[in-house]
Amino acid sequence: MSSVLLREFLYELCVSSEKAACIARHIRFMHSDFNSMIQEKKLDANHQHLTADYKTLADVIIQEVIKRDLGRIYPVLTHHIYGEEDGSLKLNSTDEKIVIDVSGSQQDILNLLKKLFDNKSTESIEKLAEIVSSSTNIVLTEQCKQSFEQIPHNISIDLSTIGIWIDPVDGTQQYINGTDGIIDSGTGIMQDGLPTALVLIGCFDRLVYWGTALLNAKFNNLENVHKRNENNNQRVLLYGSINLNAFKNIPGDWRKIEVAACGNKLLSIGLKQANIYLVTKSAAFNWDLCAAHAIIQSVNGQILDLSRVIDYYNENKTKQNLDFSQFKIIYNNIKPDKFQPQDYACKPFIAYYNEQDLVDILESFVVNKILIE
């Protein structure tokens, strides 16, 4: 039987995410040990605008722990869980590639961590092994558990139709650098991305955000964990990877803010802190978008293929009741061959929570002949 209650499935996802946050917090504060477990990744053609890209021990362990834990609870999902990393990390001392296998006992995991940390045996490494191996010490807050009560008991989900994308750390560079958590006073948006190091659960602010976007079940807990600034009358456009010429002729009631971390920016749309998030380069992947996409859809927003939307608007802008939903980003384009991250790059996109904001700003993009790369 692959059908389970939606509220029960969501509970297990949040437990997995909280465990991931515990791992990320513990690894981040292992002081000098943390710095030895950072590996620079080769930038592909879509990411040459970045200074560098990294993966950390947290990225790899979190991904493998989520795969293990959810696969044990729901075996039908075992081959439906995908992540950005290849499940390995190179040792800085020898350049040896170590496969991160978390399927064994706590002692097996401790032995693996000792090898990664050059055979050190410290209290912090032993504690990490305990967190990774345990399946019983993760407790959600009462507020989080109560938020699931809004989902009726008669709503189920067929797990055989479900796929899971994992982005262990949103804003890896900010996570590594330990930036200051700069808050924009007008919107409450975290400009350097730090508090949302994980899409569902903030690694540092420890807030849980969830949303569901099934046809018969749009629910979220956003009002429970976030109080919106209702006094902010200025519309906000967020950007990261973008050609700045796109901003010519945008009406003056739009405020433009550069913000770090894709998941952080998308969550700001879901929380209605910002109206539009614009990406004009193919610089994000399925795992960057999908969790926040569900949250955005739960408030009747959407993430759309930017190029197709602009073409469609240009051809049909004089018509009423334009159907933008046909251009939403989808995530089930699984390739049969060996997993290659570049195969899952998302096209340039635009995200919003209110369709009228989208319509209002599209005219500026058409006039500017926005450059989409």
The overall pLDDT, averaged over residues, is 79
* Main beta-sheet annotation: 5 strands, mixed
CATH architecture type of the largest domain: 2-Layer Sandwich
Q: Order of SSEs, N→C? A: EHHEEHEEEHHHEEHEEHEEHEEHEHEEH
The gyration radius over C-alpha positions equals 21 Å
> How many helical stretches?
12
Strand percent estimate: 15-25%
Judged by helices, strands and strand pairing, the structural class is alpha+beta
Q: Provide the number of structural domains.
A: 2
What would the principal axes of the Cα set say about the shape? Answer: globular
* Spatial arrangement of strands, main beta sheet: 12-11-13-17-15
Low-pLDDT residue intervals, each spanning 5 or more residues: 47-54, 193-203
Record field, number of beta strands: 17
What is the end-to-end distance? 45 Å
Layout of secondary structure:
Elements: E1 3-5, H1 6-28, H2 32-35, E2 38-41, E3 53-56, H3 57-73, E4 81-83, E5 88-90, E6 97-99, H4 106-116, H5 123-133, H6 142-147, E7 156-158, E8 164-166, H7 172-177, E9 211-214, E10 217-220, H8 222-225, E11 235-239, E12 254-258, H9 262-270, E13 276-279, E14 284-285, H10 286-298, E15 302-305, H11 306-316, E16 345-346, E17 349-352, H12 355-368
Parallel strand pairs: 4-8, 11-12, 11-13
Antiparallel strand pairs: 1-7, 2-3, 5-6, 9-10, 13-17, 14-16, 15-17
Helix pairs in contact: 1-3, 1-5, 4-5, 9-10
